[in-house]
Write a structure and sequence with these properties.
The protein is elongated, with a radius of gyration of 24 Å. It contains nine helices and 18 strands. Strand 14 and strand 15 form a beta hairpin. A six-stranded mixed beta sheet has the order 5-6-7-3-8-9, with helices on both faces. Strands 11, 13, 14, 15, 16 and 17 form a six-stranded mixed beta sheet that branches. It folds into two domains: 224 residues, Rossmann fold, CATH 3.40.50.300; 108 residues, Beta Barrel (OB fold (Dihydrolipoamide Acetyltransferase, E2P)), CATH 2.40.50.140. Helices cover 27% and strands 34% of the residues. With 342 residues, it is α/β, with parallel strands linked by helices. The structure holds adenosine-5'-diphosphate. Adenosine-5'-diphosphate binds next to strand 2 and helix 1. The site of adenosine-5'-diphosphate (ADP) has 11 residues, from strand 2 and helix 1.
Length: 342
């Protein structure tokens, strides 16, 4: 059987003069979880609504290898759970199965299996109002999985959970989807959540799917500067700024290639904050401008002086003793080329 469950081809959806989704194509494989990340207003929710058939695209098509049916529909889970407050946890999870008139015995078995798997069996006879946010989220997910949806769509699924619970729930969801063999698409603006739970991540900006790939690939080989910027601090600089930095063998090898774009002074390069390092040096050609603590790491904003120019750089470092005004040298271990700007 084809491994592709669903294929979106060149989908476009506009609202009046707003192009919400522009020429989006993607293939969804059986059993995978894709997270679509992007800034607010990028078109993520619209894309989910098109998949759920709550909206229709002006152009393009959605092809299903196995179309959704009443028994196995596309299910959209919203951020605010939407549990039935007057039904117990068990009745909430059983709701879709009862509506589909499954045999009583099968309903009981499926509900019990889900309650066990989701760690909420002891809450079966309680009401949603008696549960914590994390437990309510589990009930909402268990209810959605109960009917074995053709595709599970999640819109900012963990928006109401605190940071630790978010990570735990994201990892848990990933395990559950694999265990129950469910294919899912989630939209989120929370990168950590997307990274821990997804098989592939798509970056949506201005209605376009700018990049889609495995998490590590999207992170380490960004398709463009604006896609890279969305996933963390990035520095951009002209290629001749490399002359003012220490370069790794990898960057040197790129520079030495025949017709290397890195030797054209105006080629725009960019790199992640962890691809740069700073070394304290009173005679260094860069000055620390700002120091920000971001958890384990320190993010330094550094000004590199070269020729008559100054270039701001973002550098992640474990070193936290450096003050604004201190002089440093900069090392670069990896760079990307911004093709459009060359
Ligand atoms: P995201 O989920 O990435 O925040 P949305 O898909 O909600 O983005 O919105 C994409 C764009 O489409 C935004 O500019 C938004 O204002 C617009 N939009 C979304 N839904 C509607 C609607 N029903 N009517 C008019 N404009 C809409």
């Amino acid at each position: 059987m084809d491994k592709i469950l669903c294929r979106l081809h060149n989908l476009t959806k506009t609202y009046g003069s707003v192009a919400a989704v522009v020429g989006v194509s993607l293939e969804l494989q059986y059993g995978e979880l894709i997270s679509i990340v992007g800034p607010s207003g990028a078109g993520k929710t619209t894309l989910l609504r098109l998949l759920a058939e709550l909206d229709t695209a002006e152009s393009g098509e959605i092809y299903f290898q196995e179309p959704p049916t009443r028994e196995h529909p596309v299910v959209l889970v919203f951020q605010d759970f939407m549990l039935f407050p007057t039904m117990t946890v068990a009745a909430n999870v059983a709701f879709g199965l009862r509506a589909r008139k499954l045999p009583r015995r099968e309903i009981q078995e499926r509900v019990q299996r889900l309650l066990d798997a989701f760690g909420i069996a002891d809450k079966a006879h309680e009401y949603p109002g008696q549960l914590s946010a994390g437990q309510q989220q589990r009930v909402a997910l268990a209810r959605a999985l109960a009917i074995r949806p053709r595709i599970l769509l999640l819109d900012e699924p963990f928006a109401h959970l605190d940071k630790t619970l978010k990570m735990d729930t994201a990892l848990f969801l990933r395990r559950m989807l694999h265990e129950f063999g469910i294919t899912a698409v989630a939209v989120t603006h929370d990168l950590e959540e997307a990274f821990v739970m997804s098989d592939r991540v798509g970056i949506m900006i201005d209605g376009q799917l700018r990049q889609l790939g495995p998490v590590d690939e999207v992170y380490s080989r960004p398709a463009s500067l604006d896609a890279a910027r969305f996933l963390g601090p990035v520095s951009s600089f002209p290629a001749d700024a490399l002359n003012a930095m220490e370069t790794s063998p990898a960057v040197e090898a790129l520079r030495q290639q025949p017709n290397s774009k890195l030797s054209l002074p105006n080629t725009l390069l960019y790199c992640r904050a962890e691809s740069l390092a700073i070394v304290p040096d009173a005679a260094g050609n860069a000055v620390i401008e700002e120091v920000r603590f971001v958890g384990v790491l320190v993010l330094y904003l550094v000004r590199l002086q070269f020729r008559e120019r100054e270039t701001p750089l973002h550098v992640f470092s474990l070193e936290n003793g450096l003050e604004p005004g201190a002089r440093v040298r900069v090392r670069v271990s990896q760079v990307c080329i911004e093709e459009e700007q060359v």
